[in-house]
Amino acid sequence: MSVTPMVRTQYWNLSTNTIRSGSTNHGESFTDVESGLLPLSRATESSLHSWGVADGLAVSAVVDTAGLTVAPGAALDSLGRIVALAAGGEAIVDPAVDPSQMVNVPTVSVGDTGLVVPTDSSGPGTFVLTVVFREVQDQGLLFNAPVLVHTPWLRLLVSSDVPDDGRVIVLATVTLGAGGVVTALDAGRRHLAGLPAGRLELRTPVVAASGVTQQEGAALSVPADGGLLLTARSGDADVSLLSVDAALASLSLLSGGGRVSVAVPGPAQTTLHVEGDPVHSGGAGGGFSFADRAVGSYVDVPGAGERWVWYASGGAARLWSGADVLSIDTVNRRLTLPPGGQLSVSVAGEPQRVVHVEGSEVHSGGPAGGFSFADRAVGTFVEFPSAGQRWVWYADGGSARLWSGRDLLTVTPSTNGGVEFGRPDAPATLSLFGSRIFDVGGGVLAIQSGGTVVSFNGGDAVGIGTQSPGGQLGVESAGTAISATNSQDGLFRSAVQASGMTGVLAQGRNTGVWAAGGSIGLVASGPTAGQFFGDVSITGTLHKGGGGFRIDHPLDPANAYLSHSFVESPEMLNVYRGTVTTDLDGDATVELPAYVEALNADVSYHLTVVGGASTVGVTRPLQGNSFSLHTDLPGAQVCWVVLGVRQDAWAQAHRIQVEEAKPDAARGRYVHPDLFGDGAAPVVVEPEHEALLAGRFPGED
């Protein structure tokens, strides 16, 4: 929209308060203009348009600088009067001008970029920049009639003094600082002109039989019952493109049928076609609803699969049709059917089991591959079965294995073309017509006859009352199976003497080996003196030359070990460590377990600030199982280590003697004689121990 300065003849003589005399003394002209044309024009504008800014009148400013720049433009007030700030025209920016004054009114010229409204005379605070319709009288050309010059009046007013009735039009909300400098601009009360209409018709030029003309292309209207309707013309029919209901709660697109595309470079291929981004539905009722293709209407509460909804809840995607029928949990990578549900794969008819597969094997692979099935009398899933509540068929090392808490049956292809049953690594049982064959692993076989005779041949071992004899003959009894007593003391005098790759193999229902002695309960020697598969519990003191852990190397577990040494100390030290972040005052409190203060004495503290240089110190030592610290910088992350000496009853009764003299029997002998040259003797308790350490066994010279 473009605007030009507006000027009209002043018919009224302000000096005599009458219509001007002379050649222009036409009362009819005054009546036509003042009482006819102008009221008609203003009534037309106010009826067909709502008041507000119509075009331009942009307001700008430089922050922390006085003055507001208003660009050329036009507005319409509620009385139907055009307020035009036109380049080349005049305007009033003096806020102190008498509103009724028409002559000798100071004005400013409007340039191509508008004009500047001064703000330096306004105090600090928030104001609104306004414009109102105004005309001032000017003499015009010499000997001609005076003219009325359209001069919009721009001024800063207090917002509460400006009613929202359209007589005064707000261009911007302005915040001023000291000296009238502009600190902020806001469009909060700026009102734009509108076009009130029940129906807005959009036309398009066309070539018809009669020539070039125009016709309706689309129309935007408000139906009689409310809402909004956008239609397009197709031939002689109106096609609904968009409709909003009277409650403004429901929107419909292409109700007569069609396709909608979003970010699709070509035509839409489906009713709703979206490319480039997911289609998102969120909130309490979020989800995607779709109907059975054979169902012609929307079914709110489906009872037979008429409508389905994909939605998400509780971290899982769920498929619903009257009730949840499928859920997919991505956190645990789990697909779940409801109780009584069935899953079929390549099945022509109805599934006959919970999972029914036809046409191919059901495959399970990977480190945990296998097929799990429960005892039919057990109603729940038992993770670690101890009495056959759950079984798993799986394959490992080229063998099929049946597991229930442990491997119970192994089937292995034999090198002779047959099949081997049992377990090569643990006990197993095979029942034959009442007789039972027990393979306890390692090539050891036990036989229990269903009758009265067990026949052996070859070099088979014999077990009496046992399925696992310790040698050629094994005996087990409810009482003492074998009693052996030695009545003489001396080197290598023993009740039972055993030698071999494994000298003694003992397996007990509770305790495998119980050894007790007057001085030493058990002595073992060798490159590896002892090896334990499981936990080791020691109630007394453990003395060692060194120690650490050795594990499969985390970076190459199949081919390398990783070892670390124990941390040693002459004191019974406990270590507690952690991190804490100080607050805005640089303070933090570290909470320790409830037993720390009772367990430890001689507590020491070690503090390190992470991420920068800062002073840190303990402000409150350990009290109530917590201590406090302070850094000279707020929000510092502090790594802390607390050391304490055990003060429990056992520790106080068994303090480590850091340095002690060797007893007479051990002097001249060494805990590690191989480190002190040839001839160095080991520390031993009994003379026969030295012979065993030297590799001399019974029956050897």
Q: Can you offer a commentary on this structure?
A:
The model has no long low-confidence stretch (mean pLDDT 82). Among the domains are: 7-186, Triple-stranded beta-helix, CATH 2.60.520; 216-274, no CATH class; 286-361, no CATH class; 573-653, Immunoglobulin-like, CATH 2.60.40; 661-701, no CATH class. The chain is mainly beta. The radius of gyration is 51 Å and the shape is elongated. Helices cover 5% and strands 36% of the residues. The strands form 17 sheets. Strands 6-18-17-13-16 form a five-stranded antiparallel beta sheet, with no helix packed on it. The protein has four helices and 52 strands.
Topology summary:
Blueprint: E1 7-9, E2 12-13, E3 18-19, H1 27-48, E4 52-56, E5 59-60, E6 65-66, E7 68-70, E8 73-76, E9 82-85, E10 90-91, E11 108-109, E12 115-117, E13 125-132, E14 135-138, E15 147-150, E16 153-157, E17 169-176, E18 181-186, E19 199-208, E20 211-221, E21 228-234, E22 237-244, E23 251-253, E24 260-262, E25 272-274, E26 288-291, E27 307-313, E28 316-320, E29 324-329, E30 334-336, E31 343-345, E32 355-357, E33 371-374, E34 390-396, E35 399-403, E36 407-413, E37 419-422, E38 428-432, E39 435-441, E40 444-448, E41 462-464, E42 473-475, E43 548-552, E44 561-565, E45 573-581, E46 587-591, H2 596-599, E47 600-610, E48 616-620, E49 626-631, E50 637-646, H3 649-653, E51 669-670, E52 681-682, H4 687-693
Parallel strand pairs: 24-25, 31-32, 41-42, 51-52
Antiparallel strand pairs: 1-15, 2-3, 4-8, 5-7, 6-18, 7-12, 8-9, 10-11, 13-16, 13-17, 14-15, 17-18, 19-20, 20-21, 21-22, 22-23, 26-27, 27-28, 28-29, 29-30, 33-34, 34-35, 35-36, 36-37, 38-39, 39-40, 43-44, 45-50, 46-49, 47-50, 48-49
